[in-house]
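Work Package 3 committed the consortium to producing structural models of liganded targets before the mid-term review. Because experimental data for this complex are still outstanding, the team generated a predictive model from sequence and the ligand definition alone, so that downstream docking and mutagenesis planning could proceed in parallel. The input record is reproduced below exactly as it was submitted to the modelling pipeline, together with the SMILES string for pyridoxal-5'-phosphate.
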Amino acid sequence: MTNKENSDLDKKYYLQAFKRYPITLARGQGSHVWDVEGNEYIDALGGIAVNALGHNHPDLVKSLQEQLSRLIHVSNFYLSEAQVKLSEKLVQLSALERVFITNSGAESVEGAIKIARKYAHSIGRGGEVISFTGAFHGRTLASLAATGKKQMQKGFDPMPGGFKQIPFNDIEAARNAISKETAAFIIEPIQGEGGIHLADRDFLHALRKLCNEHNIVLIFDEIQCGMGRTGKMFAHEHTGVKPDIMTLAKALGGGVPMGSILSSEKVSSAIDFGDHGTTFGGNPLACTAGLATLEAIEKEDLLSRAGKKGNWLKNKINTLQLPGFKEFRGKGLMIGVEFEFGTKPLVAKMLEKGVLVNSTADTVLRMLPALNIPQEDLEKVIEVLIESLNELKTHD
Ligand SMILES: Cc1ncc(COP(=O)(O)O)c(C=O)c1O
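The resulting structure, written out as tokens with the ligand in place, is given here.
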């Protein structure tokens, strides 16, 4: 079927919740993807920070193929070696002590909120969760309540109670927001959907101190910024501040849907048998993907490669004097370029020219390519960005 035929059928059958670009992707290799008509694109979006290893990575594919032919799924009533090994790996990498494997980011956030509330109640605190302006924590009801965006919540009330939002990077607001009801703060060390905004190092240190003083749980949502994207395995490592709970998803499975909640022994000890569960979460296929992805990130030195490539892009974009350019933000390969105008037409123009990127927070062009994206592809992305900006300018 052609791109157009697929688009027409999608419009007829699929819940119309996504405003899609009219291409149907059929195949991927490294940082390149092809649509059903054979058109080739450089993928600088990486499935929104999912395809950290690029497409069709040989180690990931081999591990999955082996696991597929042995065992796809078992109930969490039983163990699988893949789950045991992945849990051990996540604990070794994170310096947190307990793991729960989920199927998505929003599910990780939901579970993190449950663990934090159970712990808070066990020490006589309330269940309120405080998030920050510009946050994005997911689209399920509780994660949407934490996300706090009125525009996304509109029409879905009543929202679950026990959530409050305060200004990002404002320690006074955090101090003033605390009461006996406060169970947890949830924060992205680098906000993704909100437009690539970094939490200040000093702010995170001060927030950690506040949490310690009041025995409040500090949750870092590393669903987008984790798994090596910023040049460290987890973005908070740049700051030296450790969370009590960390949520992961996106790149964890290298493209296989999965997430994880990591928590400290202290906080997770509040969870009893039967308090939480999942049917699919942590199944052998997903855990095999998780393990293979983390191993490839380590084996191929993708942390330092992401850091170097990110620095190259930062220097390049900061010196290019792009028309309408306002600010470069980001770390490693988590990149936001803010313009003086809405970036949707720019994204569409770049797609026309064979580069996949995305627009977030209206005026931000976001790039989240594979951590192993080749230098020549990055150069091509920049070339297409310049060309697209120039063409849009002449059309004005
Ligand atoms: C920081 C963050 N948290 C949570 C989510 C929700 O993840 P999912 O779409 O897998 O439910 C996202 C997704 O973009 C995210 O970026």
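Reviewers should note the following from the model. The chain has a mean pLDDT of 97. These observations will guide the Year 2 experiments.
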